Amino acid sequence: SGFLPVILENVSQLEEAEIIVVDGGSTDGTLELLEGFKVRLYSIGKSSRAARLNIGIAHSQGELILLHHPRSVVTPDAILSLLETAKGKRNFWGGFTHQFDLEHPLLNFTSWYSNHMRCDLRGIVYLDHCIFFDESFKLRGINIPDVEIFEDTEISKMFNAISQPVRLNEPVITSAVRFQKNGLYRQALMNQFLKLGYSLNVPAKTMNRLYEKGLGLNS
């Protein structure tokens, strides 16, 4: 998607930001790109995204943690707004308002549903909303289950037991690459099929193989 250079440029503008990158064995030029930025890099080889998130959270030292999705872009101003909103709050978590980088009625509806139904009503925040939370969650010793898919749903369940999420109005722009490569309606149907599989306790490895077939975006 080419989002990573933009993400790194954006977060590098925040003077006090601690930028942590956890690499799972990239061979696509990511490591070379990182050499141009001031980041703390941890490499753990082939791993689940949940495992990489746990490493990053464990090594973070800030009062507020932002799980920046690698195919979503949040502007520096939006992050500064988040910092202002989070001031003085405890048990504070949530995400930004989701949009896709491609205009289409189906994608517009998907974002609307994710913002208003999934996040606002059910308290489930997907990683492409760029989940944020204050250090009180880390201090509770919360650890994300090492699953290959739906790790964001697991995070939301754990955090919901403590407090309800906040959705900020500032947008997060997410790549529609899965929809573009797999077909809009085919990907939408697959997403619903996978959610059904999650509710029926289908093994995460099985679901992730289907989700990543031909793409490998989460590896």
Structure description:
The protein is α/β, with parallel strands linked by helices. It is 46% helix and 15% strand. The chain is built from ten helices and seven strands. The protein has helices at residues 3-12, 30-34, 49-59, 76-86, 105-121, 135-139, 151-160, 177-182, 184-199, 204-212, and strands at 20-23, 40-43, 64-66, 72-73, 93-100, 132-134, 166-174. The protein has a five-stranded mixed beta sheet with strand order 3-6-5-7-4. A two-stranded parallel sheet has the order 1-2.
How many β strands by DSSP? 7
Helix segment tally: 10
Query: Order of strands side by side in the largest beta sheet?
Result: 3-6-5-7-4
Oligomeric state, counting identical vs distinct chains? single chain
In this structure, how is the largest beta sheet organized? Answer: 5 strands, mixed
The SSE order reads HEHEHEEHEHEHHEHHH
Distance between the termini: 15 Å
Shape: globular
Global Rg: 17 Å
Model regions low in confidence, pLDDT < 50 over at least 5 residues: none
What fraction, in percent, of the residue positions are helical? 40-55%
Overall pLDDT metric: 93
Amount of beta strand: 15-25%
Structural class category: alpha/beta
